[in-house]
């Protein structure tokens, strides 16, 4: 099980790294556009590319953020439950999350495949092939689905979810920055 754990953690970290690179790309694009504007030059396609990178940032960050317990989670009700009821509630919540995220992954994959099949291009100043930036949606949501199923397996096995453990570790250090 340890090699699988390492592979999954590497996948989550890699996706988080891709999210960080996408965010850096947005910053660099905006700085380039600002500098170019100062010398009277127009950089075509930066707005479209920044929008695509924004989507990539969001979707690639989902799994890593979920595993670290930094997604918005309302624990007011579940935190008051006893251990058995809490475990059942966690399982039900994770099953529902898997269903919703699986549906998102399926439909975004269908949309990406359709864009690929019809060779859809962006309508902006630079004709980007749209399926390429759309690929971040099914990949990111697919990885989130894997992370949810990973946590579901942990909870079914009687282990504490990683997102709960991470939140407890932050609280023990006095760090409530991720708590709502």
Keywords:
180 residues, mainly alpha, 6 helices, elongated
Description:
This protein is an all-alpha fold and 180 residues long. The model has no long low-confidence stretch (mean pLDDT 92). The protein is built from 6 helices and no strands. The chain starts with a helix and ends in an 8-residue tail after the last helix.
What is the strand and helix layout of this fold?
Blueprint: H1 2-38, H2 46-67, H3 83-117, H4 131-134, H5 136-156, H6 162-172
Q: Would you tell me the structural class of the helices and strands? A: mainly alpha
The number of helices is 6
- DSSP strand tally: 0
Global morphology: elongated
Short description:
The chain has six helices and no strands.
């Amino acid at each position: 099980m340890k090699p699988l754990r390492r592979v999954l953690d590497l996948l989550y970290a890699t996706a988080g790294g891709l999210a960080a690179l996408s965010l850096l790309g947005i910053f660099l694009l905006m700085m380039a556009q600002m500098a170019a504007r100062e010398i009277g030059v127009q950089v075509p396609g930066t707005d479209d590319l920044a929008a695509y990178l924004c989507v990539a940032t969001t979707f690639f960050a989902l799994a890593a953020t979920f595993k670290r317990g930094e997604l918005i989670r309302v624990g007011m009700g579940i935190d008051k439950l006893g251990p058995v009821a809490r475990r059942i509630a966690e399982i039900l919540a994770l099953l529902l999350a898997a269903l919703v995220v699986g549906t998102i992954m399926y439909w975004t994959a269908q949309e990406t495949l359709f864009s690929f099949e019809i060779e859809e291009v962006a309508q902006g100043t630079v004709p980007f092939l749209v399926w390429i930036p759309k690929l971040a949606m099914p990949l990111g949501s697919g990885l989130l689905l894997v992370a949810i199923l990973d946590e579901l397996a942990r909870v079914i096995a009687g282990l504490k979810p990683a997102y709960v453990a991470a939140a407890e570790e932050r609280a023990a250090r006095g760090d409530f920055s991720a708590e709502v």
